[in-house]
Design goal:
Elements (H helix, E strand, L loop, with lengths): L1 H47 L2 H7 L1 E4 L2 E2 L2 E2 L7 H8 L16 H16 L13 E2 L18 H5 L5 H19 L3 E2 L24 H17 L3 E7 L20 H6 L2 H9 L4 E4 L11 E2 L5 E2 L7 H11 L5 E3 L6 H4 L11 H14 L4 E6 L3 H19 L5 H17 L12 H11 L3 H14 L1 E5 L12 E6 L5 H13 L8 E6 L1 E4 L2 E4 L3 H8 L3 E6 L12 H15 L3 E6 L14 E4 L25 H11 L12 E6 L5 E9 L16
Parallel strand pairs: 1-11, 4-5, 5-6, 6-7, 7-10, 13-14, 13-17, 17-18, 18-19
Antiparallel strand pairs: 2-3, 8-9, 12-19, 15-16, 20-21
Helix pairs in contact: 1-14, 2-13, 4-15, 6-7, 6-15, 6-16, 7-9, 10-12, 12-13, 16-20, 17-20, 18-19
Length: 680
Amino acid sequence: MKSKMKKIYIKKIKSLLICAVIICMAILDVSCGESKAENKDESVIVSRMTLDDKLSQMIIPAIRTWNDNEVTDLDEVPELKEALKKHQYGGIILYGQNIKNTEQTVKLVSGLQANNLSNEEVSAHIPYLMPLDEEGGIVIRLTDGTRMTGNMAIGATGDAAEENALVTGRIIGEELSALGFNADFAPVVDVNNNAANPVIGVRSFSDDPETVAALGTSYMDGLSKVNIAAACKHFPGHGDTDVDSHIGTPTVEKTYEELLQTELVPFEAMTGHGVDMVMTAHITFPKIDDKVTFGDGTEGYYPATMSKKIITDILRGDLGYDGVVVTDALEMDAIMNAALVDGEPQSTEYMVNVAEKVINAGVDILLLPKDLKDAEAALFYDDYISGLEKKVEDGTIPMERIDESVERILKLKEKYGIEESAYSDNNIDELIENAKSVVGSKEHHNDEMEIARSAITVLKNDGDTLPLSKDADRVFLLGRLETDRTLIESTMAALRDEGVISPDTEVLFDYYIESDPDGEKLHYTEEMADEIRNSDVVIGMTQTHNADVLAESALMYQAVSRAISDVHEGGGRFVLLSCRLPYDAARFLDAEAIVLAYLGAGMDMDPTATDGSSVGTGAYNSNVVAALEVIVGKTAATGRLPVNIPELNINSDGTVSYGDKPLYKRGYRLLINKKGEDDE
């Protein structure tokens, strides 16, 4: 009896399990059906699009100017409005020339979307992807907004860095969204493991790949939380280069295995975390790629942007990425003037042939083949798209490759609600009112200052030079440019008002580089030298973007080294305030104190100016404000060095080069307490 009951029991269990499996399969089938339906909807839209519309959807031009006048109001350039309506562009990218203030920017962005949706000649109304290069730090477009500290400063905030990266992404995203933008070509996830890098530098979080991966992911999360699509850049890594791809073609001599250890670590993390877009780099990788014959008959290697091995095999294949891939600007010299393919560089034929290689490599969006700046440029785009159509029609570019890219772009737009209904009934006054309450808000500036204060790093403090004593009778601030005066004098005046600086302390300012029609020249007068010799402390500011400014012939080196000598001659002390790359700490070892701020931009803006609703107006430099607060003793210094600072070699010809050994190691710091507190 027990045996029979046991068999019945087992039979019932089996039946229940079978039912459960059937139900699960039904659920999965419904889910898959929904997924297939979604894909089918995108495919249906693509199938209705003309080839012109498809190819146009893969192009994002810039509109900086029209007939040499800056484009700030679309209604003032009717020719441009009509030129934009000739093709269903995937998006428009704006630059500083287009962005003057919050109200104007809202109107321009809204006007661009409205103009696009008013086009009756396209097969489908698809709103623009409106990206901006708003990295924070030295690369921003929103001069009315919150600059934020830049990536290397975030990397200097130690245990709080991931949270600070998240906050930075969120703040930048909130301001972009309020203005009508829906994508950010950020974060930079290049590993700055080459001190001589002239283009990445402080745009990188660190020279440690795992740190860059973690902070890049957090920054991306901050953007996505406020519905802004992120684009990590520059794949497969621009950190270990000593050439700027805006003016030349950098080469990285690394094997694939070496890239996997460093450059690709952040990109693997970002793609694994679902980043919306990946931006390519115009860099060659001879130890990875296949040699090709260029348009001028010479042999070499295509930049990663044009390389199928790097985009399709590595990014799509090895990293498993199926999101949108966008080029870095195709107008850059590393592409436009490099004679990579047949045709005269910059010509329509040449740029069409470049685009063929880019698309067949696996890239989805052609960013800025040319500035849409006049009627001639509008004709270029007509011929450019027509030339690509011919390549699709003759099979040089497979139609499947085009459809694949357009579906990815539409899927991205759907994810972020970039659809016609989102732009058809906008109340411009409400949009402007909201944007004014968000862009450059008091809350954003307060958060920015908190991050800046936690980033300031002290490497050296001989004789307890820091914080400065209230008894210092004379403090001389040596800026790089005359425009540095705005931020420095307003900050020092505020510190005096707060009682941090004694009312009896004389505070002086001058600068050491003067602009000239023929270039820059040294501005270091005998009067300045006398004032420096008679000062108790000189705070000298540097802005190092490459090793050239540290050479004996460079104006910055001449001025700062002379100031150190002059103040020492008078018995005073020198504080080096490094305002960009920290590697200049190795050049000025005679300074009594070395303070790192990681940012030199925005010095011409007053952080104390207010319209009554915010702490300061405009994208001023919070890092230098925070560094001055540390120097005079208002706040403590807790930042950690996010990169290794190598020893510097002085060559026989007066130039400099970086050595292999670190002078200061990543993670190093000196804790400097506020004035009146005991040292730890």
